[in-house]
């Protein structure tokens, strides 16, 4: 679903992928190293699982990953699928589904294969501290405008509206209460 090269790839040879695995169905964020014998190949044996997120349905796995200007890894997760977000993940801060998260992959918190930056917006709340923004249906692509610093995200709509959002720390983008600028269930 996504691939990102570590900001120090030339020195460490690390890159990160986001893929869907089945049995059980889940997104896996994994680090790999480039092959020592061929710079155009990955060393499959170097797989290091950073994070796994269970997926309740077959669609809306998000997928984009990328390193921001702050060198942290940003990852989008869809709401988990099912028409209309039947599990209400988009507004649930206890799940990573329906979010963009922000993590530090160069340092580890206890029990994790990453750490959470101290300035993440939900770090001191009853929420998953990895969350950077939420209320997203399926932000399958995002990128930074390096002139303005804005993070732009493309979010899939349900029936009526697709969204292009400027993603800001701590903001709720409304799904499943809103689809675009309209109430989803008026």
Characterization of this structure:
It is globular, with a radius of gyration of 16 Å. Strand 9 (139-144) and strand 10 form a beta hairpin. The mean pLDDT is 95. The longest helix is centred in the first third of the chain and has 4 residues, at 9-12. The chain is built from one helix and 13 strands, in the order βαββββββββββββ. It has a four-stranded antiparallel beta sheet with strand order 1-2-3-4, with no helix packed on it. The protein has a four-stranded antiparallel beta sheet with strand order 5-6-7-8, with no helix packed on it. It has a three-stranded antiparallel beta sheet with strand order 9-10-11, with no helix packed on it. It has 186 residues and is mainly β.
Question: What characteristics describe this protein?
Answer:
186 residues, mainly beta, four-stranded antiparallel beta sheet, 1 helix, 2% helix
């Amino acid at each position: 679903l996504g691939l990102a090269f570590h900001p120090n790839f030339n020195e460490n040879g690390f890159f990160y992928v986001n893929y869907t695995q089945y049995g059980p169905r889940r997104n896996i964020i994994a680090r790999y190293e480039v092959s020592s014998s061929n710079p155009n190949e990955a060393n499959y044996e170097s797989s290091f699982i950073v994070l796994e997120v269970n997926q309740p349905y077959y669609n809306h796995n998000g997928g984009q990953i990328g390193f921001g200007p702050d060198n942290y890894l940003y990852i989008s997760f869809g709401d988990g699928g099912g028409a209309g977000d039947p599990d209400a993940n988009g507004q649930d801060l206890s799940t990573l589904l329906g979010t963009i998260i922000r993590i530090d992959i160069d340092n580890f918190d206890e029990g994790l294969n990453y750490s959470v930056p101290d300035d993440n917006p939900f770090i001191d709340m009853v929420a998953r501290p990895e969350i950077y923004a939420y209320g997203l249906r399926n932000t399958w692509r995002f990128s930074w405008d390096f002139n303005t610093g804005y993070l732009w995200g493309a979010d899939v709509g349900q029936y009526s509206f697709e969204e292009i959002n400027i993603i800001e720390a701590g903001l709720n983008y409304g799904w499943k209460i809103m689809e675009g600028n309209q109430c989803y269930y008026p």
